[in-house]
Design brief:
heterodimer, A: mainly beta, Porin, 14-stranded antiparallel β-barrel, 3 helices, 21 strands, B: alpha/beta, Rossmann fold, four-stranded parallel beta sheet, 12% strand, globular
Chain lengths: 406, 448
């Protein structure tokens, strides 16, 4: 039997959702301004956005939030009159932040447990690109203990250690056919871990203009002993033994600069710019513990480029209890035209966001935000299947969180 | 409450956004303005033989009918103004239709075939013990009849000779209706036409031995006359359509799988196991000359392999009824029968005839302003192998993904790719934007 092209892929749209856009769903306040606001908010979510801002909190707080990230992609093969959509899937990223520190101390400690990736694509098994990908779900939990210190009243710094637990679940069809006519498939599931750090500094001028500078290191998640399972005809089962695989997923480092400017007692304008060092993502290699003539290790070229994103927002304190906000942003894709894969049909994107915070009483407050991202339509040729077609993606992410402070 | 009223606009804004969440991204289709010459697809009929009917694995089943290339084509036509496309389906409970071949096992990489014999749509037998299939005499658009030839389309009593045609006819027409009358009285607005293959391949697949009307070789002159006549009838109301060319014999695994070298390798492995000396030649019977050693240019037909005759010393000579003691095919005095081999000279003649007939097809199509789906070129391209949607396809038996187990008819995937040849031909001729069929939705040969 002819050697099959057997390239299994991983990596995730959610990696991009998290890193490429820097619209993380951790801080629902910042989310309401499309992810801008690292300079404005010095609260428990600073653990994520800028550990340097944490020490400026004058209280302690615990917050928990949840989002519904809906990744909606569409594909139309060139020359076809049929549009294929990803199945509607909601993945709920969550985040929990807690701070610890005595009153009026110069330091503050915190712990964040959050899921920076909350995406899933499910193209199903009847779309043209099914021999590239059926579905990919990726979930990662970051655990980040953090310490922050106020060097002066205006300047504080902080650092956190990131420990990542990543889970991957992906499937693709294989061009072999079972007695009922359906195609064979491969399923890969695995868990990996990685380590990184997050550092930052926060400075506010006496006129309340604030600057935030933070750096997140790369986190290379290593998957070892993942499970590879194959549903194939009995006649070729020996060539597709259920086996183990290993792979490495690099998450890029990013440098973020944020600025907030109060324009009145009630209104702040914020801006954030992020430079993301995506060029570490050169290729994705899957190494199978057992190889056969039909089951070979695979290498997929990614060749990501460094990317940037820019976001602006406005925060309006309507009264003592209510703040409303809005923002927009632009993200330059790290994926060039020749390396667009079905799991990340990425392109430059614009995003808009709305949000609000409402203080129920002195202790409890509620935050809500809604982000819509639109990825520009992009006509590409798949590096795996050579199918030419157009991708278009919308991402919807409503989020809600509660904060208890003391 | 007061605050709620104050912020009502905000709440409405959020509600509107939540609504937007259910919206999918949209990509523009080409269907608007995709038919500038107003080609009338409202009643498309498919005229043809087994390839048109959805025949595969030496049989016709309900699933095969559903995955016929005209049905795929009709679904795309619907998006640009096409109408309902009806097919003469076998009943749901008789889904295996005529029965067909399936791959039972791969033994040391060699296929072992079985025949499906349950849930058949057989209603009885003809006097000469041929099956009669459950009838379908309602209105249909897919007029494909397995075994139909261009010359036989003009012959009366075909309903009595061809059970697939018989099942489409009311009882009182079985003995009288010709296929050409049947096919040209459907009030069609558009047609596909793929007759002519069997007029050459029927002869070739029988090793260029003629035993009856189904395996004669048509002459160019007869072909030109009948082809023009059929197409003239189909275009009597200026209807547009698409015609298919005839594939080359060397493009189909029926002729290319069982090679001289593969046979020798098999024989010599068996001889070696018995401690005997290897042989270096296979002898074949030819029409013109005395038996001779086969060369790599002689093509053995696919069923010769499963017939299991090679090397046997217990076979009776069909002419004399006496057992021939020489090993079958391995000695000049017991050569492989002519019907199992399309020898070099026969192959050349058949190939030349196909080229000549395709020229006639293109000429008639041109004169009637019809599109040409060049199946000849398409299968020649398959012969050298290429990748489509990440799948390697070729004319290799079983692993090539295109040809079904009979080595002549296509797999669902093969029919889908063929449908796209028709799509491209129609779009090129009439500036339409028929969409291409999603090849990934259809499978190749099912493995056990």
């Amino acid at each position: 039997m002819k050697k099959l092209l057997f390239s299994i892929l991983c990596a995730s749209p959610s990696l991009l959702f998290a890193q490429g856009s820097q619209v993380n769903t951790q801080g629902v306040r910042a989310l309401g301004m499309a992810g801008a606001g690292s300079a404005l908010f010095t609260d428990e979510t600073s653990i994520f956005y800028n550990p340097g801002g944490l020490a400026k909190m004058d209280h302690n707080a615990v917050s928990g939030g949840i989002s519904a990230v809906m990744y909606r992609s569409a594909f139309k093969e060139s020359g076809s009159n049929q549009v294929y959509n990803t199945r509607s899937q909601v993945t709920p990223p969550f985040s929990v932040f807690a701070t610890f520190g005595p009153d009026n101390a110069r330091w503050k400690a915190g712990l964040g447990v959050y899921t920076p990736y909350g995406g899933a694509v499910d193209w199903g098994d009847s779309w043209p690109g099914k021999y590239e990908l059926n579905h990919l779900k990726l979930r990662a939990i970051y655990i980040q203990p953090t310490i922050s210190y106020k060097l002066t009243d205006n300047l504080s710094v902080g650092a956190g250690l990131v420990y990542n637990i990543g889970m991957v679940d992906l499937a693709r069809s294989l061009p072999l056919f079972l007695p009922d006519g359906s195609s064979a498939n491969a399923k890969l599931t695995g868990t990996g871990t990685g380590i990184g750090y997050n550092v930052g500094a926060h400075y506010n001028f006496d006129n309340n203009v604030a600057i935030s500078l933070s750096y997140r290191s790369k986190v290379v998640t290593k998957l070892k002993k993942g499970d590879a399972e194959f549903t194939v005809p009995d006649a070729v089962a020996a060539s597709f033994p259920d086996t183990k695989f290993s792979a490495e997923l690099p998450l890029p480092a990013s440098l973020n600069l944020g600025l907030s400017v109060p324009v009145s007692d009630k209104v702040d304008i914020v801006a954030d710019g992020t430079f993301i060092q995506y060029n570490i993502y050169k290729k994705l290699v899957f190494d199978y513990a057992d190889n056969t003539p039909l089951l070979q290790d695979t290498e997929q070229i990614k060749n990501y480029k460094n990317a940037f994103s820019g976001k602006v927002g406005v925060n309006y304190k309507a009264n003592e209890k209510l703040a409303v906000r809005a923002g927009m942003g632009y993200v330059k894709t790290p994926v060039d035209k020749d390396h667009v894969y079905a799991e990340t049909p990425d392109n430059d994107r614009i995003m808009g966001a709305l949000g609000l915070s409402y203080a129920i009483n002195d202790k409890f407050s509620l935050h809500a935000a809604y982000v819509l991202q639109k990825l520009k339509e992009r006509t590409v040729t798949s590096p795996v299947t050579q199918i030419e077609g157009a991708y278009k993606t919308n991402i919807h992410a409503p989020s809600i969180s509660f904060t208890y402070k003391w | 409450m007061k605050r709620f009223q104050k912020n009502i606009k905000l709440y409405i804004g959020f509600a509107a956004l939540a609504l937007a969440a259910s919206c999918k991204p949209s990509i523009d289709l080409d269907t608007k303005g995709g038919n500038p010459e107003n080609v009338d697809f409202s009643k498309y009929i498919a005229v043809g033989n087994s390839l048109t009917s959805g025949y595969a694995n030496s049989g016709l089943s309900l699933k095969g009918q559903e995955q016929s290339f005209p049905n795929m084509l009709a679904q795309e036509m619907k998006k640009v103004g096409g109408g309902e496309f009806l097919q003469p389906y076998f009943p749901a409970e008789n889904y295996n239709g005529s029965g067909f071949l399936y791959l039972k096992a791969l033994v040391n990489g060699q296929p072992e075939l079985g025949t499906v014999t349950d849930h058949l749509a057989i209603r009885g037998q003809t006097p000469d013990k041929k099956p009669l299939y459950i009838k379908y005499t309602g209105p249909i658009n897919n007029l494909g009849v397995p075994g139909m030839r261009l010359d036989l389309a003009f012959a009366p009593r075909m309903g009595e000779l061809n059970p697939y045609f018989e099942r489409l006819l009311p009882d009182n027409e079985t003995a009288t209706k010709t296929y050409v009358d049947f096919a040209t009285t459907k009030d069609h607005t558009f047609f596909s036409f793929s007759l002519g293959n069997n007029d050459v391949l029927g002869y070739a697949t029988n090793g260029a031995v003629t035993t009856d009307a189904t395996n004669t070789l048509i002459s160019e002159q007869t072909f030109a006359g009948l082809y023009t006549s059929f197409i003239t009838k189909l275009t009597s109301k200026e209807q547009k359509g698409v015609v298919a060319t005839i594939p080359d014999v060397t493009a189909v695994p029926y002729f290319t799988t069982v090679t001289r070298q593969a046979l020798l390798a098999g024989v010599n492995a068996a001889l070696k196991a018995q401690g005997k000396d290897p042989v270096s030649d296979i002898y074949i019977k030819t029409k013109a000359d005395l038996p001779r050693a086969a060369t790599d240019k002689d093509m053995f037909i696919l069923p010769f392999s499963s017939a299991g005759l090679l090397g046997r010393q217990d076979l009776k000579d069909p002419a004399t009824g006496v057992v021939n003691p020489f090993p079958y095919g391995l000695h000049p005095r017991n050569p492989v029968g002519d019907n199992f081999v399309l020898d070099e000279a026969e192959a050349k003649m058949v190939q030349d005839r196909i080229v000549a007939l395709n020229a006639i097809i293109k000429q008639v199509a041109d004169s009637k302003k019809l599109a040409v789906a060049d199946i000849y070129s398409f299968l020649n391209k398959v012969k050298s192998g290429y990748q489509i949607n990440g799948i390697a396809i070729s004319n290799k038996y079983i692993t090539g993904n295109i040809f079904s187990l009979d080595g002549v008819h296509l797999t669902p995937m093969g029919y889908a790719i063929m449908a796209n040849v028709f799509v491209d031909a129609i779009n090129a001729k009439y500036s339409t934007k028929l969409g291409k069929v999603n090849v990934s939705q259809y499978g190749g040969v099912a493995l056990p």
